[in-house]
Each structure stands twice: as C-alpha cells, then as structure tokens.
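Please predict the structure of the following assembly.
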Amino acid sequence: MAQNRVKDNRAWIGVLPVLLIVAFSGVIPLMTVVNYSVQDILDFNTRFFVGLEWYRETLDDPRFVDAFLRQIGFSAAVLIVEIPLGIIVARGMPTDGLRASLLLVLLATPLLIPWNVVGAIWQIYARPDIGLLGVTLNELGIAFNYTSEPLHAWLTLLAMDIWHWTSLVALLAFAGLTSVPAACYQAAELDGASKWQVFRFVELPRLKGVLVIAVLLRLMDSFMIYTEPFVLTGGGPGNTTTFLSQYLATMAVGQFDLGPAAAFSIIYFLFILLFSWLFYTSVMRDEDRS
Amino acid sequence: MLRMDRACLDGDEATAFDHSFAPGEMTVVLGGNLSGKTNLCRLLAGLPTQAHGDVSYDEQPWSHLPPQQRSVAAVFQAFVNYPNWTVAQNIASPLVARGLTPEVQEQKICALAQSLGIGDLLERNPDELSGGQQQRLAIARALAQQADVLVLDEPLVNLDYKLREALVVELKTLLAETRATVIYTSSDPRDAFALGDQVLLLERNQKLQSGTPLQVYQNPSNLAAAHLMSDPGVNLLPASEHTERGERRAVRPEHVRLGAETAPQSDTELRFDMQVHSVERSGDETFLHGNVCDPQSPQAMEHWVVRRLGMQPVDAGQAVALYVRCADILTLAVE
Amino acid sequence: MARIRLDNVGFTYPGADAATLAPLSMDISHGEAFSLLGASGAGKTTLLNLLSGILQPTQGRIFLDDVDVTGLPGRDRNLSQVFQFPVLYQSMTVRENLAFPLTTRGSRRNRADIEARVNAVADELNIGGILKRSAKGISLFEKQLVAIGRALIRPDVSMVLLDEPLTAVEPSVKWRLRQTLKQAQQDLGVTMVYVTHDQTEALTFAERVAVLANGYILQTGTPDDVYQNPAHEFVGHFLGSPGMNFLPVADLPESLQQRVTGMGDPERLGFRPENAALGLPNTFDLPGVVHSQRILGTQRGEVISMYGLQCGAHSVFVRSSMPLAVGDPVTIDLKRWIGFRDAIRVGRRGAE
C-alpha cells in the first residue's frame, strides 16, 4: 500500500511520549554515567576532570581482566550447552494435544521464578550438608563442595543457569519449528533424507531467525548475570566466580569509586554492544546477500 | 453524471486524463497489475491515495468531501465484513445509518439477501461463510447503501472459476436493477464483455481508450489496447510484414483458423506456418502455442497463440498451417 | 516408473460417519500422465495422501508393479511429490537441491553419475543456467521448476505426484510450466499423477482424467471423453465454462419428449452451450427468452455471443452468432445431447 501513503507529519506527535520515556529512562542516565566516567568525584561539591584516566586504570586492573575472562568463559559455556539442549527439547515436544500444553507450562515454570529465588533454591539444593544434590553426590562418593572447590562452584552455577534458561531457548525453537510447513518434512522424507539431514537442511535454515534471537538474548543476559551467583556463591570461593557485574557492584556501591565504576560500566556496555553486533552481522550477512 | 477531471492516478501530471462515466450504466475499468485501477477506485470513493484530480457528480464537486459524504459504496478484493455481526446485521448497517424503521429494514435485508443467494444465512457470522458467500455479503452491504455510485474493485478475483461464472451472471442482472453508476475493475476482458455497458482501458495510470466493449474490441486504438481487450493477448505478424514506422499488424488468437478446418480462400486470407510448442485444452476450447515465421526472413519469429473452439486434434511438435482473414488483421500503433 | 493399481481402496476418518473416499479401483499404467480433477473437498487430496503413504487406506490394497505397498510409508515406495508451493532446501544451491535425492538413503551413485543426471534433468527443464544460484535467490517460477526437477531426479522413481503444482505460479506463465511438465513427462516416460481443480490443467496434462466429487470417482476417461460424454451430470457441469445445461425431460415440449423416449428413458437432458443452435420463434421446438448476453468475440466478422436463455423455469446458455437483445424470444435446436437418469448418463444423441 506504499503507493497510497499520504504525506503527513502529525504521526510524530504520537511518538513523542515514547521518545520522552526513552530519554529519561535510557539516554539521560547513560549520559550521567559518561559524565562521571571522566571526572574524579571526591564529594558532591569537589570534582576534577580527569579525561580517560579511569578507562586506562580499569583496563590495566588485573582484577577487571580476570573478571572479564571469567565472564567470557561463563557466557560461552552457557551458550554451548543451552542452545543445542533447547533445540533438542523443542524437537522432542509433541506439537499439539493436552501433552503439548502441559509440557509448555512445565517448560515455562523456571522462567517465572524470581532470580534471587533461583539462586536461593540452588544454594540450598547443592549444599553438601543438607541439600538434596550435594548430599546425594557425596553419598555417591564424590567429594562435592561448591563452597570450597572452584570447579564445583562453576559447575553448580552452570547447572543453575541451564536449568533456569534452557526453557527460553526451547520455547523459541519450538515456535520456530511449528512454522515449518508439513510439506517440507514430507518432501524430505520422500527424498530419503536421514533424521540428521532433516534437521540440518529442513529445520535449521528455518530456525535461524529465532536462534539468532535466542543466542543474543542468552549472550546479553549471561554477560550481565548478577543476582544468582551473588546469592549462590557470593563470588567465591575466593574470586573464582566473581563476574563483571558483581565486581562492578563492589566497586560502585561497596567502595563508592564512582568515576572508575562509571568507566567500567561504559566499557562493559560497549563490549556487550560490540559482541552482539559482531554476532548479528556475521550471521545475517549471507541472509542479506540472497 | 460522474466525472473525473485531470485525474492523475500516480500523482504524475503527465498521465492526467478526463473521463465521464455513463450515468446509470456499468463501466468496466480494464487494466493489468499496477495499471492504476485501485487508485482510480480510491479516488472516486474519497479514500487516501496518491491519485489526485477533480471528481464531481451531477456538477456537484466531490473532491473535498470525505467518503461518508459522497453517495458512493465500494467493494474491494478482500472480503471486508463486520466479523462479529451476523449477515443480517452486516446488511443492515447502512440501513440503520439511514434511519429506516425496523420493518422497512427487515424487508430490504431479506430482499437483498435473497437476490444474492444468502437468504438462508442471515443468522450466521461472516466467518462461517465460504469465500463466495462472504463476497456476496460485501456486495449486498454495498447495495444496501443505495448510493448513486457503486465501486467494485476486482470483487470476484479471489473466487474459483465456477463461482465467478455464476456470480458474474447474477451481478449483471442485479446491477441492471439499480440505477447506480457502477465502476467495476478487472484484468479479464471476459468481464468487460459480460458486465460492461462501457469499458475504460487503463495502462500505467493512463487512459488508453473507452467505448462499448464491442467498439473497443473491433477498433483498438493501439497495440496496448488490443492486448488488454484480448485473452490471451494479440499475435503480432512477423515484423517484415511491411507497415508504417511505429505500427505493427496483429491478429486476435480467436481469428486464426487452422488449415484443416475449411478450405482456404486464397484471395481474402493470409497463410502462416506455425511450429506448435504446446497444446492446452479447457474442454470447450483449445489453445495452441507456437512460433510463426516470416517466409521471407525466417529469423523474424513471433510467438503466437491460436484459440479454437472445441477439442482440436493437434499435438505439440506438429507443424500446422494457419489462415487469417485480411479483414481480421489489425494495424496498430506501437507506443 | 511403475504401474499403479488401487484395489477397492477407501478411506474413512476415525469416528466419521461418511467415507472421505468411497472404495474405488483404479489402474494407472507405466509412464501414464494421469489427472485427478475435482473441486475442493472432493477427496483428491485424500487419494493423493493414500498414494504417497501419508495416510493408510481403511480398506483395500495399493499395488506398485504388482508389489503390495499398502502400509508402507512414503519413503519406501520410491515416489516423489511436487507440492502447491515450491518446497526447496533453502540453504542449498539449485544444483545441490537437484542432487539431494541421489545422495540420500545409501544411494550407491558416484559423483560423475550424479553430475550427469543433474545436468540431464536441468537441461530437460531448461534451468541449466541457474544451477549455481542459491535456492533462495530465484523467482517463484524457477523455484517450482527446481522442485519439479528434484521430483524427477531419481531415474528409477516409481511415480511422481503433483499436488496443484501451478497454484503459486503467475497466471501468465502457467502455460509455460504446464508445457515443460508435459514435455518432461513424455521425454522421461514417468508415471505422473496430477491433482487439480482446474479443468484446463487436467485436460491439457493428462492422457486420462478421473473426475472426483464427494469422495467418489464419477468418471475416468480421456480428456475428450470426459468433456464430450460426461457419465455423470456433475462431470458435465464441472467441465466447460459455462458448464453443461440441464433441462428436465418432463418440462420439454411434447415433440421433443417423443424424440427422447426410448433413449434410456432419461429424466434430464444435458447439452453444451456450443451444441445447440438458436432460431427465430417457431423455427425449432424449444422456446426460450434471452435474459443475458456475453459477447465472446467475432468470427469471420460476425459477433459471437454466449446467450443466457430462460426456458420456462430453467436457465440455459447457448453460444450463437445470431444478433439478439435481452428480452427477445427465440427457439432452440439441440444438435447434440446426453440423457441422464438419477444424474447418470443413460443415452446420447448427436454427431460423433
């Protein structure tokens, strides 16, 4: 209907409230942070312009670099497990009937639990003295203790995140799979395609869109993870599960180093943006070409 | 009388044209995709469109009136009905707006529904109707408005052919009873013959020709007009058939005779030889597709379609002799 | 390719009262172009799904080359199918799409053989020029050609099922696809079953046509036969545009009734619009009044019209070059007609 479009600029008035909300909730706070990141704030009345000093300091800080590397490791592990697992779950779902509805509700349950509750649940569940998981593992002869063993802490965190978020990937993939026309499966069957080929050539190309969204959501979300590890391990043992956001919180809230914390935030934000952009453009590039 | 002055269907002044729609008659606006048919309908109905121009009815200017204040009813390709109202309520909607008493409304609803063959469905909701019934309902609602001008934009295009066949005949009878000026758009010349008192040919937002269907069929003003008013399009005689510059000679698919049918009359007929590529049969008609060469310069080749009555015993790959009456050859300007 | 034999095959959905497909027997020979024609809901798709193994018949047996394949899934019947909308592997090139059925299911073919077969089929369909393109980047017309090519790629395919394959194709190029399909069918000698609701597609494509309505096969015959000699009133009505006219014998004038008696004692007479002539009043036996006119064009300078005529309580269409206006009285001469009793053909009269 593009040919019937009428020139009319009044629509901008309708968009104005949204622009205002976005400005106050997004742009203005961000600018405040940018402002902080280039100043040294001693108290509310005494501040100096320090240029890029805080940025340099943050990037040179070995604790920042460690937290950053841990963060990348965690996000990578989360994606590597959750995306394939979500697809496998989605493919195993029945497409209609009462069973499908029940399974969908069941799948959605972890998504409805508040994050700190998830942390608390796993904190108790994995405790070696009273937790079902922890006690069971110890009974089986595995000396499991996530409060003292960094590896165990990591595995517990991963298990928790997978339990919490695989459902999201599965639901997205399920929605993608239901849009595959029946004729495509039928054609593949008549062509003699194997199960793997059906997945690779019929389902995967049509899942691409939702999978990109799933990866982006999980990437950004896991990169910003705070509540659950804070409740579960508190960043320990030592600093072995201290991720970026937790380090940032310690800096900004605990030590009130507003300037470095602001610089940290900006760097953090730019990283997420860059990662997401790189991923999105690399995946969607051949999409545009055709 | 409904008039358009300096109507630009695509907003480009160069294509502007004037047209008067014959009062109380049905004008079939014939044009292909993107010919500007829908813009013309929207211009007449007063709906937002990039088309502009002066529309007047009986000397009363309409251009600045919103659709509600024009005496115009419209039916578009997609079946548009009020989904949560019954068939009866849908038909009644324009009657209520006119402030008629319930008894008179009732009568009119029944009469309209009856004449459109949806009399038994008055209590149904539109989503319980088939596509054909939904479009009949949309037409009934438009007729209930008793507007001076009725605009039908390809109303039957989404229906299957058996249903179209039946509805075209019904529409013709039904619309003859209203005294409205009807504008019916289509891309099918058969609709023009079946429904049109007048035709208006459009191509790329420009008016090609207007007149009665037979006039336009017999004397197309140029090649594009001949193509539009032909199903399938006209066959061009091989280029070396000498003509003036900017002119081509052409013949309609139904005016090409197969040699086997009757003996040729060499003085009044031209002979062509066709290599048949494919044969299509619809039962009552046979269509032969193939290439026709000019005997003098064999590289000048034209793709022809021959349309004959009945099931013709011709197969793909065969060479056939074709005869064309000189009187049936059209000499046409090429734009 | 194979001979397809249906022996008393029927299908009823579980719990349904009436059969979706009444028991039928059918024999399609090696390399035949066969067409199933019917309106939507006639049972065409059910029959197609029985052949392709998506559905299993609730009674009867299906044989491919005398091998009972009833109960076998589609993949074990070695058949291929073309769907309403082009079904391609989006992430592959056209060449990969065509080659795919040759590389699956342990096909013991070497690369050179696959290459040769892909090129041969691509040549047949005239798509050699787009083999390297991505399946996503070609037109809808080309996509459907590639889908057809994939269906034809296995040289030993038992049958090719076509489910309204021209639905998605633009009207102006449909004939080209029909032509290509028919040519390929003849060149490769494949058994093809073509399902459609479009009479032109069915009559053009097939050597034999089966007309379906309400789950029954009403008639199977050559295109000429089903058009000229409909065995059932519905066949006469469904084929042709407009379809066959029907008049109850009891409503005919006395003189005509006498001509009809003894011809199987029909209840209704059916005649095609082109198989009747019009004359002035009192010329022929059957009177009528013109109620509508659709000009069809000119023939040797004369205007030919399809006239709608009111004959008593009935409406018929007759094709004629007589110049008439709405309201004119005429008489009708039936040159060729078929008698029906209980909607079944019982007799006919007229030039063969």
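Chain A has one domain: 55-289. The longest strand of chain A covers residues 39-43.
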